[in-house]
Amino acid sequence: MKDTYKRILKPSEEVLFKDKNSKFFGYAFPITSEEEAKEHLEELRKKHHQARHWCYAWQIGKEEHQFRANDDGEPSNSAGMPIYGQIQSFDVTNILIVVVRYFGGVKLGVGGLINAYKTAAQMALEASKIVTRTIDEKFEISFNYPEMNIVMRIIKEHNLNIIEQKLELDCKIYISVRKKDAEAIFEKFKSIYKVEIKKIED
């Protein structure tokens, strides 16, 4: 079971690829929604208001992926898909890559465009710090104060991550568990008398 994914933590440095006087500026941004992608695109359109094309691709989701690729006026599949190909090649998600083109007066042809957009996207990814993260499931554990010791012992033994705790007369602890261990941990808490556990959907 695949329970990890790769992402970037912060925007890349601006990179530049040149071909026959055309300039291709590449950028990578971490995103978690299409709205964030639109905001970054707006900013780049303002920054590069004299450019000719703002081509991009994004992918979001840890397990189920959503993606979009846009040629922004370039010949069909000559920009957006080559950019998206690099996202797949580097196996990253929750990412937007934009390549801004300033036309240099010489046509590059479809092959030249594919190479330029692919290269600028690759450079933006190479300029980014890519990290691997685990896919986690979240649980709510409910119990009374006398069960506190046994619950905390399991959390310690398995080095579980506590997201939040409400410790009053009736206690609730929220934990995140790596996906491949989630079922075993769920069963462990479920088997304890007077302890309830339920999965929290994001």
From TrEMBL:
Transmembrane segments: none annotated. Residues 20-125 form the Impact N-terminal domain. InterPro entries: Impact, Impact_N, Impact_N_sf, Ribosomal_Su5_D2-typ_SF. Pfam families: Impact_N (PF01205). It comes from the Bacteria. SUPFAM superfamilies: Ribosomal protein S5 domain 2-like (SSF54211). Belongs to the IMPACT family. This is YigZ family protein. It comes from Gillisia lutea. The lineage of its organism: Bacteria, Pseudomonadati, Bacteroidota, Flavobacteriia, Flavobacteriales.
